[in-house]
Design a protein that fits this description.
This protein has about 190 residues and is α+β, with helices and mostly antiparallel strands. The protein folds into two domains: about 150 residues, no CATH class; about 40 residues, no CATH class. Helices cover about 35% and strands about 10% of the residues. The protein has four helices and six strands. The protein has a two-stranded antiparallel ribbon. The chain is flat, with a radius of gyration of 21 Å.
C-alpha cells in the first residue's frame, strides 16, 4: 500500500480535527488495553495454587508486556496508523485528510473487530436521562459538571463508555523484536 502525502489536506476543520483526536484516543486505548492485559495475565489469586502447565517448544511466546507494541504494530500494518499520526497535515487540504482518515478508520475498525471484543458500559442512548444509584461503579462512570453530595445522582449520558471484554493478540516468534513497529521498506 502506497501512502501519497500529497493527498493529505493542508487545513483542518472540526470534523477532521475530531477524527485526529479519535485516532489519538484509540492509540492510547490500545496501549492501556495492552498494559491491562499484561497485568491481568500475571495475576494469580493468592488462595489458589497455580496449575502446572506444559510449555510448548520455545519457538513462539506470548507477549503480555509487549502487548501494546504488538497492537500498535498491527495498527500500522492494517491502517498505516503511525504514518498518519506522524505526518505533518498542515500542508494538505481537508478533503485529502478526510480521504486518508477513511483508510485509517477502515483499517483500525478491521483490526479492532479481529482482536478486541468491546462492549458499551451503559446501554442507554447518548443524551438519555439516567440515575446513578448509591454504590455505583465509579471506575466505569466519570461524573462531570456540578458534582455535589452523594449518590444517587441524576444526569444525562454524554457517552456510554467502552469496556474491553477480551483481547486476542497473536503469538510472536522467540527472536521477534516488538520494538520494530514497521520495518523499513526497500524496493529493488
Amino acid at each position: 500500500m502506497q501512502f501519497d502525502p500529497n493527498l493529505i489536506p493542508t487545513t483542518l476543520d472540526l470534523v477532521h480535527l475530531t477524527l485526529a483526536v479519535v485516532v489519538a484516543f484509540l492509540t492510547l486505548l490500545a496501549i492501556v488495553l495492552g498494559l491491562l492485559w499484561a497485568k491481568a495475565s500475571k495475576k494469580t489469586p493468592s488462595n489458589v495454587e497455580p496449575v502446572p502447565t506444559i510449555t510448548p517448544a520455545p519457538v513462539l511466546r506470548a507477549a503480555p508486556e509487549e502487548g501494546a507494541l504488538v497492537f500498535l504494530s498491527l495498527l500500522q500494518q492494517e491502517a498505516r496508523f503511525i504514518d498518519f499520526v506522524e505526518e505533518d497535515l498542515s500542508h494538505h487540504a481537508d478533503a485529502d485528510i478526510g480521504a486518508a482518515a477513511r483508510v485509517v478508520h477502515a483499517g483500525c475498525q478491521k483490526l479492532f473487530r479481529q482482536h478486541l471484543e468491546l462492549k458499551s458500559i451503559r446501554s442507554e442512548a447518548e443524551g438519555s436521562a439516567i440515575e446513578l444509584p448509591r454504590g455505583f461503579d465509579a471506575s466505569s462512570i466519570r461524573l462531570s459538571g456540578h458534582v455535589v453530595g452523594e449518590a444517587p445522582f441524576k444526569g444525562v449520558l454524554v457517552h456510554p463508555g467502552w469496556r474491553a471484554e477480551s483481547i486476542r493478540l497473536p503469538t510472536i516468534g522467540e527472536r521477534h523484536d516488538v520494538r520494530i513497529l514497521a520495518p523499513a521498506e526497500v524496493e529493488l
